Inverse folding.
């Protein structure tokens, strides 16, 4: 969705037309779900957060300012929601009760999905928290480095450098064999 299309959808929402929100959902629903799943590692929580996200957008979108880069703005909201969810979850559940059930695709078995998710989690744990966030924003949320820099409030060169370093670390871990 281009900035112009997003801004047209915002105008529809401001006038009370739900079709504007439908257009935003169609463009970003899957992307936001993948982003939430990459953060919370639980299929049901990611679905719930995605639903809550679009309800929150219905409330927040009238305050969106044109020309501010909608993808970064959308990602900041999602990032804050995921962080709040993880904080609440850590206060509500003991560590041994936190479970992970990744989403299944039609082409993967449950076992393959669990192994793949465990491997990816183990690989990402080799990175600093900063690098993990940049990789997730680039891969799961499909943001450009410029958008990630805006979301994180960091220089563009730093974001690109950290991403390249992170990918290098992950490639090295994969070549070594076991990510764990």
């Amino acid at each position: 969705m281009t900035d112009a299309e997003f801004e047209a959808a915002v105008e529809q929402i401001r006038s009370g037309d739900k079709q504007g929100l439908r257009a935003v959902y169609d463009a970003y629903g899957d992307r936001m779900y993948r982003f939430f799943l990459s953060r919370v590692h639980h299929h049901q929580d990611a679905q719930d957060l995605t639903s809550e996200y679009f309800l929150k957008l219905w409330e927040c979108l009238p305050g969106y300012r044109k020309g501010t880069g909608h993808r970064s703005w959308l990602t900041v909201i999602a990032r804050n929601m995921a962080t709040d969810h993880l904080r609440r979850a850590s206060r509500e559940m003991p560590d041994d009760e936190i479970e992970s059930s990744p989403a299944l695709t039609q082409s993967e078995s449950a076992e393959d999905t669990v192994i793949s998710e465990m491997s990816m989690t183990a690989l990402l744990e080799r990175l600093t928290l900063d690098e993990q966030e940049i990789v997730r924003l680039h891969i799961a949320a499909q943001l450009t480095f410029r958008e990630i820099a805006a979301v994180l409030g960091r220089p563009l060169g730093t974001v690109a450098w950290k991403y390249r370093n992170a990918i290098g670390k992950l490639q090295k871990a994969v070549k070594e064999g076991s990510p764990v």
